[in-house]
Design a protein that fits this description.
Elements: H1 4-8, E1 19-26, E2 33-40, E3 53-56, E4 69-79, E5 88-95, H2 106-114, H3 117-122, E6 125-136, H4 169-182, E7 186-191, E8 197-206, H5 209-228, E9 230-233, E10 248-253, H6 255-258, H7 262-275, H8 277-283, E11 306-308, E12 315-317, H9 319-324, E13 329-331, H10 340-353
Parallel strand pairs: 1-5, 11-12
Antiparallel strand pairs: 1-2, 3-4, 4-5, 6-8, 6-9, 6-10, 7-8, 10-13, 12-13
Helix pairs in contact: 2-10, 4-5, 5-10, 7-10
Length: about 350
């Protein structure tokens, strides 16, 4: 008798041209990642050639039971690291049967900003540092922590090694390789300051692709933790007290910032971000007030600040950027549960399109 793992790992390319496409979308909470699979007659590499699909929006908090059909529009294709072969993951966004984007469809709104001629000309690049926490499935307490208790204070865990410092490395490395296989521009991983907390980075990626790639990277991580029997948390402050929160620091540059004289453009952009601080904070993730306290490498949520190499500021400029007088900056305000479509497009809108 075949083992279950043997069947899961069957290579379909040996027996059929058909492939499995896993359609991925975002549910009504804005953080619940949903997916379902369908069979395609042959491999597809262009999302425009994929069929639209539907799902029951009344079961995801996106439609009523009397008119529950929601339509998925395929937008981006990635290789499937779970099924292998020619099978694919498909990032989608959601519309009514009449073709109107759902109110929760942040991708549609972001695409309108990224398709503006002025934004296209500036070629915005993003590098997103996604922090997350791994929790025990039964008790929702960080893995590696004493049950109902606390480990030693922060200090040895950041980029730490050893069984008493790094908890969950197999999950992290599996995710790293799976993202590379999928075609995601994952650029690195590291253990974070709080034990049981990790980070991966996606980028540099241009425009709308930054949001597509981060959402699919999150999906892959959800699937891996599902296999491992561990709960994945994007809560910006999963443990109260003297422990670091979890953010999604967003590194950003435009063509003008990367060119000679770019440092002045960077400072002008930061000034615009300062003027719209409240609007950005409102869009940068729920529960961020528990994280942005002015402690644990954060700026106070009510006050905008920036500085060179200052991890206690709202926006940090790197020493290399200051020295080269061009480059990028890091917006440290977004929470770990932020929507990358919202954050990336809002930064572009404020720094390129908005006129004070």
């Amino acid at each position: 008798m075949s083992l279950l793992s043997d069947l899961i790992n069957l290579n379909l390319t040996d027996t059929t041209k058909k492939v499995i496409a896993e359609y991925i979308w975002i549910g009504g909470s804005g953080m619940d990642i949903r997916s379902k699979g369908r069979t395609l007659p042959e491999p597809v590499t262009d999302p425009a050639k994929l069929p639209k699909w539907n799902y029951d929006g009344s079961s995801t908090g996106q439609a009523s039971g009397e008119d529950s059909e929601v339509i998925l529009y395929p937008q981006a294709i990635f290789r499937d690291p779970f099924r292998g072969g020619n099978n694919i993951l498909v990032m989608c966004d959601a519309y009514t049967p009449a073709g109107e984007p759902l109110p929760t469809n942040a991708r549609y709104k972001a695409e309108k900003i990224f398709s503006h001629p002025d934004v296209i000309a500036e070629e915005p690049w993003y590098g997103i540092e996604q922090e997350y926490t791994l929790l025990r499935q039964e008790v929702k307490w960080p893995i590696g922590w004493p049950l109902g208790g606390y480990p030693g204070p922060q200090g040895p865990y950041y980029c730490g090694t050893g069984a008493d410092k790094a908890f969950g490395r197999d999950i992290v490395n599996s995710h790293y390789k799976a993202c590379l296989h999928a075609g995601i521009d994952i650029s690195g991983i590291n253990g974070e300051v709080m034990p049981g907390q990790w980070e991966f980075q996606v980028g540099p990626v241009g425009g709308i692709s930054a949001g597509d790639q981060l959402w699919v990277a999150r999906y892959i991580l959800e699937r891996i933790t599902e296999i491992a029997g561990v709960t994945l948390s994007f809560d910006p402050k999963p443990i109260e007290g003297d422990w670091n929160g979890a953010g999604a620091h967003t590194n950003y540059s435009t063509k003008s910032m990367r060119s000679d004289g770019g440092y002045e453009v960077i400072k002008q952009a930061i000034e615009k971000l300062k003027l719209r601080h409240k609007e950005h904070i409102a869009a940068y993730g729920e529960g961020n007030d528990r994280r942005l306290t002015g402690k644990h490498e954060t700026a106070d949520i009510n006050n905008f600040s920036w500085g060179v190499a200052n991890r206690g500021a709202s926006v940090r400029v790197g020493r290399e950027t200051e020295k080269a007088a061009k480059g990028y900056f890091e917006d440290r305000r977004p929470a770990s549960n932020m929507d990358p479509y919202v954050v990336t497009s809002m930064i572009a809108e404020t720094t390129i399109l908005w006129k004070p």
